[in-house]
UniProtKB/TrEMBL annotation:
Source taxonomy: Bacteria, Bacillati, Actinomycetota, Actinomycetes, Streptosporangiales
Catalyzed reactions per annotation: ATP + protein L-histidine = ADP + protein N-phospho-L-histidine
SUPFAM superfamilies: ATPase domain of HSP90 chaperone/DNA topoisomerase II/histidine kinase, Homodimeric domain of signal transducing histidine kinase
The keyword Kinase appears for this protein: yes
Keyword Transferase found: yes
UniProt organism field: Nonomuraea pusilla
Name of the featured protein: Sensor-like histidine kinase SenX3
Amino acid sequence: MTPYAAAPLGELWMVVAVTAGLGLVVAALGVGVIWRLRTRSIGVMLAVVVVVAVSATLAGVVVGIMEMIIDGPVKDSVLAIVAVGGLVGLGAAFVLARMVVRESRRLVAAVGATPFTAPRGLPAELQTIAGSLEEAYERERALEGARRELVAWVSHDLRTPLAGLRAMAEALEDGVVRDPATVSRYHRQMKLEVGRLSAMVDDLFELSRIHAGALRLSRVRIGLADLVADTLAGAEPVARAKGVVLTAEAAASVPVEADPGALGRALGNLVVNAIRHTPPGRTVVLRAGVDAGGMACLSVADWCGGIPEEDLPRVFDVAFRGEAARTPTAEGGAGLGLAIAQGIVEAHDGTIGVVNDGPGCRFDIRLPLLRS
């Protein structure tokens, strides 16, 4: 290779090295500036990014021109072209940055408005954020409405037994009731009302833990047949008092990983709800097995006559009883049992649903099957 050929190659490597060094220096300064301005407006950060990118490019181009064998008017012309191109690039970049900032400010203004409505025509990322925010606001509004309904209904449900307790306590205190039989009946009734209030408070506490994500599960390997047997034994006295027949059909081995106490409570809530809505002399059936999709399945079928189609999506709503009158019956609750069951099942990575089936409805719990 001749000395004439080796010289341009050496100059080229020097230009590359100097350009890379200048680019790294400018980039490092830009990162430092962005870090210091990370809490400022997105417009400021975009401006810094644009300046850094254009400065690094122009620095490399200028070094290359200065090191090349270009002199006189030609070099001046090339430098002028580079300078104009850089200014045009900066101007165009700032215009685009202002457009992005304007769109982000539209989103910020929409977030501050009440009610929130996602603006349309935003860039894809901002539109995704706006859609997620709109869904979150809708969920929050629905939860707030449910909370208000819950407070109103529970206040009514608490007021009724408390009024009865107060009346009986005043009658006993004032001596209005004296005969032993009536006094004994009052004491039994007071104990019953206290039990109802205690159960209602327990349900409210459990529901609050579920909504707060504070439900702690101690999962172990259990068989659904054992869970069905335990639930059947616990609900038998309630069914006998109502005159309802309880039966069970459980496969021999359906293993799942679950908290026996929590899942038992969810299943027990479904069974008690089924007994409550089944006429005397009819049957409530518990089943455990594996469905066609390979999921462990628990089902509770009753004889309630079915649920109106428009009410099916609301069955698991807090305080929903499916009744025009919200006054609880003697065996009724605050309408929290199904909402609690849903929260427990979903905490087990399962699903719960209800369908009309035959003479009544059927609640289905599906859980991941534990395979060997």
